[in-house]
Amino acid sequence: MNRRDFFKGLAISAFTASVGSNLIEKADAFTVKTYPITTKFPEKDKLILYSERPPLLETPRQYFDRAITPNKLFFVRWHLADIPTYVDLNSWRLKIQGNVKNPIEFSLDDLKTKFEPVSFYAVLQCSGNGRNFFKPKPKGIHWNHGAMGNALWTGVRLKDILNYAGIKSGSIEVAFDGLDKPPYPKTPDFIRSLPLDRVLEEDVILAYEMNNEPLPYLNGFPLRLIVPGWYATHWIKSVSRITVLDKPLKNFWMEKAYKLPDNDCECIKPGEKPEKTKTITTMNVKSVIAKPLDNSIVKVGEVIKIAGVAFDYGSGIRDVLLSFDNGKTWEKANLGTYLGRYSFREWFFYYKPKKKGKLTIMSRAINNDGQMQPFEIGWNPGGYKWNVVDKVQINIV
Ligand SMILES: Nc1nc2c(c(=O)[nH]1)N[C@H]1C(S)=C(S)[C@@H](COP(=O)(O)O)O[C@H]1N2
Ligand SMILES: [Mo]
Q: 84, 149, 207, 320: which has the fewest Cβ within 10 Å?
């Protein structure tokens, strides 16, 4: 099937819930609600379905037993229902405008040939990943652990492109707009900005490849912004317009969305209003247990492999510790190959259950700055930044 035809069937049945027969049942310790698994999205395999329009698809937990998330299993999140489903690269252009000396347009080939390509692994994680575990549950999509993934991103430095256009003095921010559009005139378009100093760092790129392939449409074909170490809300998909600004961008997405309470714990009591807020930026340290799944049945004396991933904002993972006695004692997991400071770090541990009954397995990551996953996290209205010590419970028989 040609990439152009992928979305045809989907558009017709956009409002019908045609889903597979599998249900994620109690996918982990905290889940009560069940969501169906779907295979019907173009360029995607089995993912947990929260919505068809816009597509909201989560990667099932068991796929985090490996450092690299395949494109087909990579989660999907769009805010606006009118998403790009076909892009003609003959006419597609990236526009650089605003406070620059030479406003300019590039084709995808221009980008690939005029600028030095760079590649690195980096974790893309939604700010609301793990929102389902907060009590009470904040409003928003009740993601479990799977609104995250790690890929090899290849593209060009934003700094090279902006310097080519020539940044005028007085510039302070850069705004990014993708090809997705609001379905109704009063819905605000998804346009976000980043501070100029972050944009000019070496590691902020516009990627045209994900794991050595063109990006899937649902993950931002043909070009997406990569801001390693920062939450996914900054990683604008299908970028087509970049505007250099001499004053802060003011719109719904910058002023109201993706805000955290601006205090030490970044938290408030449920129901209260934060006095001040700030925009969410860097990710915190986190580990997730992929296998065994919650409620797995395991035989006494049979060795099982416990596996998962860990990551942070870019200091890198120092250790992943596991506990089999509710946090009294901890053992070091084996770490997989180092794939760069922004990548998932795979970890694994072989364990032989000695006695029958229920067993809780906990995982706790420590980064190179000495930060550790907490046992509890304060509540915030967005349900952002969940990174509590992970756990699964297995039945030993
Ligand atoms: N153009 C565009 N880019 C976007 C968004 C969007 O709605 N439109 N959502 C952001 C958010 S909140 C997330 S979590 C990620 C999701 O990326 P993915 O769909 O590739 O997993 O894209 C980000 N970039
Ligand atoms: Mo997100």
A: 84
Any atom of ligand 1 within 6 Å of the Cβ of 84? no
What is the distance between the alpha carbons of residues 94 and 161, in angstroms, rounded to a whole number?
Answer: 10
**In this model, does residue 318 exceed pLDDT 50?**
yes
Q: Compute the distance from residue 128 Cα to the ligand 2 centre, in Å.
A: 6
Q: Which residues of 78-101 are buried (b: 16+ CB within 10 A; e: fewer)?
A: bbbbbbbbebeeeebebebebbbe
Question: Whole-prediction pTM value?
Answer: 0.94
Q: Which atom of ligand 1 is nearest to the CA of 179?
A: 1
257 and 319, same domain (yes or no): no
> Do residues 100 and 248 share a domain?
yes
219 Cβ below 6 A of ligand 1: yes
Are 101 and 202 within one domain? yes
State the Cα–Cα distance between residues 260 and 230, nearest whole angstrom.
Answer: 14
pLDDT in tens, 88-103: 999 999 999 999 999 9
Instruction: Return the residue whose CA atom lies nearest to atom 24 of ligand 1.
Output: 236
Confirm or reject: Cβ of 181 under 6 Å from ligand 1.
Answer: no
137: CA distance to ligand 2 center in Å?
16
Query: Residue 316's domain spans which residues?
Result: 286-396
Q: Residue 157 forms beta bridges with which residues? A: 205
Number of domains within the chain: 3
- Please tell me the residue having the least CA distance from ligand 1 atom 9: 78
